[in-house]
Amino acid sequence: MNRQPVLIVGAGPGGLCAALTLQKRGIRCLLVERVPEERLFADVGGGYDIGLNSLKMLDRLGVGDAVRQQGRKTAAVLSFTSNDVLYDRMTLPEDVDAVGVLRSTLQRILLDGLDPSMLRCDAKVVAVEPQHDGVTVTLHTGEQLHAEVLVGADGAHSAVRKATFPKDPPLHFCGLTCAWGRTPLDALPSVLADQMPALDHAISVTGPGRILLAGCPGDSWLWSAFWRTDRFTSSTSGSLRTVQQQFVDWGPRTTGLLHHADPDTVVKVGIFDRDPIPSWSAGRTIFIGDAAHPMTPFLGQGANSAMIDAFVLANLLADETPESAFSKFERRRKVPVEKNVASARSLARWMTTENRLSALAFRSMMRLVPSSLLLRAITSADHVNDVTDLIPKIPQPG
Ligand SMILES: Cc1cc2nc3c(=O)[nH]c(=O)nc-3n(C[C@H](O)[C@H](O)[C@H](O)COP(=O)(O)OP(=O)(O)OC[C@H]3O[C@@H](n4cnc5c(N)ncnc54)[C@H](O)[C@@H]3O)c2cc1C
User: Considering only CA atoms, which of 57, 186, 33 is closest in space to residue 121?
Assistant: First the structure.
């Protein structure tokens, strides 16, 4: 049986960041990912706003500049009504280092820093069994791997979590369906391109029960469209048509972006989060990122939290026994991150309310509250990701 000190399941932002940090600290680990390597980067569409603290941490891992160069710094966020009336402009100060980047770009950058022997793709975990000296994991091929520590970084629908906490309540559906996709810049007719803001501006378009968010991290507008639904149906067929129908009565900025989108890039998901559970660990298994604390995307914190979890946990594992590392990790991260989960849930409710009066109240609040206060609200969610004390633990190259 293959034996590893640390086995990480899932090569999303959390898993990759954990592997890279362990590598920098000289700890051997193996990262297993269910999809084949060519599909790891073929995820169509999705992207993230990488925040100030994550960028500082990525700098120390040697990949921050690649993220800045291959993404795009966000200069301002413009808010429009569904019929394209601008009602708020939030300019981000020069010193706010926030970069929009495609998920696939971020994954490739993190992976490029990793010793290739540390990643095994096409390796889906199907069973997890605790042992007295660690955990045994079974892959879909029947192969078994043994680890002293197992890190579940396999996302919101985590198989490791289901196996570890079989009595866990199901994910909480937030009453929202989301589709994201890309509209290539060169697919936009000039009349529509003229209505779009500068490429370093993000936009949000809101109407009762629906919202469209868009930014341009590369050569396409990357948009996510959300609408209220009682339940989520997972069928992805005809997704672009479904989104277009949802927003058919909105202004040309939204309908145009959707009309000219590349249908092959559209992905439809349900928005789920979780109520807190007593612990993120059991025996020698611990969870990070969405596997521990899935949250709605409205605070822009999911991927940032996953990477910071990874960085904190990997540094603790390099210095302490697994028991002590797990307990210090949960003490540091659990309460503040779960507060962000709750804020992200209420923001999702507010920003997509179907009640016209509440929607109007939300827009008025956005208009009336000074940008500096709004900015403070957004950046305060990121305070929990401050890892300045741990950064010096990563040795500088040379
Ligand atoms: C529309 C939208 C916009 C978002 N925008 C932002 C944003 O701006 N900023 C932000 O910080 N966050 C954002 N998020 C949230 C973000 O996508 C997630 O929080 C983040 O991806 C979580 O990272 P993770 O590494 O924990 O898990 P994931 O990214 O879900 O990665 C899990 C990995 O595990 C693999 N896996 C799953 N099961 C198995 C198995 N059984 N065996 C092996 N491998 C497995 C999966 O293939 C995947 O590669 C957004 C989300 C959505 C839906």
Answer: 33
What pLDDT score was predicted for residue 315? 97
Q: Which of 152, 50, 22, 161 is nearest to 107 (CA)?
A: 50
- Answer yes or no: is the C-beta of 273 below 6 A from any ligand 1 atom: no
Check whether 369 has a pLDDT greater than 70. no
CA distances from 340 to 5, 232, 344, 382 (A): 31, 23, 6, 9
Q: What is the largest CA-CA distance in the chain?
A: 66
Report the atom number in ligand 1 closest to the C-alpha of 10: 34
> How much is the pLDDT for 377?
66
- Ligand 1 contact via 107 beta carbon (within 6 Å): no
Does the pLDDT of residue 123 top 70, yes or no? yes
From the CA of 40, give the closest atom in ligand 1: 49
Domains and their CATH numbers in the chain: 2-171+273-393 (3.50.50.60)
From 111, 171, 290, mutation site for ligand 1 pocket: most ligand atoms within 8 A of C-beta: 290
> What pTM did the predictor assign?
0.94
Query: What 3-state DSSP class applies to 48?
Result: strand
Phi, psi dihedrals of residue 106, rounded to the nearest 5° = -60, -45
DSSP state letter for 45: S
Q: What CA–CA distance (Å, rounded) separates 125 from 382?
A: 32
Whether ligand 1 lies within 6 angstroms of the CB of 9 is answered as yes
Q: Whose CA is nearest to atom 4 of ligand 1?
A: 297
* Model pLDDT for residues 60-101, shown as the tens digit of each residue: 999 999 999 999 998 999 999 999 999 889 888 887 778 999
- Residue 396: C-alpha distances to residues 24, 58, 238, 388, 393 (Å): 9, 13, 49, 15, 9
Residue closest by Cα to atom 19 of ligand 1: 302
